[in-house]
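Researcher: We're teaching a course module on how sequence relates to structure. For the next exercise, students receive a sequence and then see the predicted structure as tokens, so they can try to spot secondary structure elements on their own. Here is the exercise chain.
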Amino acid sequence: MGLARKWRLGLCLGAGLAMAGGSHVARATGASQDEILWDTFGVPHIYATTEAGAFYGFGWAQAHSHGNIVLKLYGTARGRAAEYWGAAEEESDRWVRGNGVYERARTFYARQTPGFRRDLDAFARGINDYAARHPADIADDMRAVLPVSGVDVVAHGLRLMNYVYIAEERKMLGDAPERRAGGSNAWAIAPSRTTDGHAVLLANPHLPWSTPFYTYYEAQLNGPGFSIYGATHVGLPVLRFAFTPDVAFTNTVNTILGAVRYRLTPDGDGYRLDGRKRKFTTRTLSYKVKQPDGTLATHSFVQRYARQGPVFNEADGTPIALYVAGLDRPGMLRQYWDMARSHNFNEFQAALKTLQVPMFNIVYADHDGHVMYLDNGILPKHDSGDFDYWNNTVPGDRSDNIPRGVVSYDSLPKVIDPPSGFVQNANDPPWLATYPRLLDPKAYPAYVAQTGPMTLRAQMSTRMLAGDVKMSFDDIIARKLNTHSLLAERILPELLAAARKDRRTDVKAAVKVLQNWDGADDATSRGTLLFETWARLFMGPKFAGSDGFARQWSLDDPIGTPSGLGDPAHAVNLLAQAAAETRKLYGAIDRPFGDVSRFHINDVDLPGNGGFGNTGIFRTITWGAMKNGERTPLHGETWVSLVSFSTPMQAKGLLSYGNSSQPGSPHHSDQLSYLSSKTLRDLWLRRDVVEQHVESVDPLPD
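Model: And here is the predicted structure for the students to work with:
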């Protein structure tokens, strides 16, 4: 039996493994009852004697660290946010109720196995019991949500996955929704590419820092037959980014079209379908709204339903019917639990094949050396049409374009154990999951994903792994923390060559700064702010335009294009403009990057690093606008874990904004120093190691 398996079983039996002269000696842990060991970063290490006990402890822990966020999320998923918090929440309640989120959550809950229902109930009970024992930790305006139930847990997961990620209201009503994903990175590196012959997995999701339903939470769950470390969205009872001694997996947002918007043709009090009038089905729905004086007013609305789904009006009055795939699949939470409980690739694939998770690329590695990329999701099956067609509103007067079924697991793009020895994803389409490319877009329906282009961040991700060089764990860490801009590497030499011929004072000054810049977004870098300002002028406000390049992106040269300056003279004029704007924004064109780019939460204020992913920076930080002389992150580096299935297992990580949002917690900014210094923490896995870093202990009720 290998050390990894011994480590897992030792924890599950309530025993740690201590190293002594190269042997592995079991030691007593004192875990005769369920308890949480809180480490010095506020991470809960939950030890339970039953599976339900681990869920109970996880609910207790989330209430301790993020109680106010959890209750706000659950109240919103009930469609009662306006009842609890006033008229500003009415739009949310109408959307949740119109889509039948809580009613469907009741059905989903009832369809769980009895054992998993007990787990969900235990998670909810842990939240309730913590709030009852620590009432002062819960904000006054959040207490009305208590108590919560297993149905609330399911409802939050349903809302998050299906009505935030897949069919968020602002994306579904209006112009063609922006389906290009934000920023997340994932690597799985096979033993053939590591110096010690062990697989490595990088989990590196990027989401907004201040949006409650996107907040990540770090934890370890130990119970009979499992020891799982990782992170998840606050409010979920399972880890979405997880590793064990046997398997590791992560997610990145993909562009899977799990929802379809149908533009209906009105016909009197109904709509046209297949050449004749159909009547809407209607229901009168109501919700309560808390008034300024604390009283409740009841508001009602009529919700219409077409054959495709519930009907909503766009701003111009156009009726849109919304079809969301997967509303007959109640097992999203259970699938994540089964993925984490897998011991090998076959068991992990069996969990994937249930197709219960509505979206997300899944990247995987294991202790046997397998690596995998899957363009996962519940994707409606269509007879025709490409990605752009189904991403826009489609005609709602024909029943032949209403999906009949979903694309099977076997038909989804995936790469398993490629000759290159790695898979990667940085929110790019699936085709470059490894390099050289193995997947052919023409082998899949045109609506599965766009062919490209591949973003510069995704190209940087691929370039750092491509080739045949074997990497040590430290080498992989260095690549993960790389702040260099691929755009600068690709375009700056040509820009400087053209600019050196220009005699304008601003251009000459800009050339002097940029020729001495190393192309990185580090705190001490001088030139980063100037280049970033130029790049925004050259590529547009989101650094997404490619018209200025001489050569456009091509699937034939996917990590070398776009490239070249289409109009060098214009690019130099933009450099003159950038110099003026940089001086106005930041005070000087060579101001150190970290002077204005700050990791600033509460009393912690440190120099920042990392930059906009679309400039080809792997270490993504999306910086907000200047305010009070600084700019702070809006989005980017959040949870990071980098694990090797070595002996013993190596695990490094970081949760940038800390592991608690509760007022007064010391764990809301205590990891920013690591982010600023471009380092990662050791993740404490074995109980004997955890015990060396205990801040407090919560004995849990029997």
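Model: If you want an answer key for the exercise: The chain is about 30% helix and 25% strand. The longest strand covers residues 281-290.
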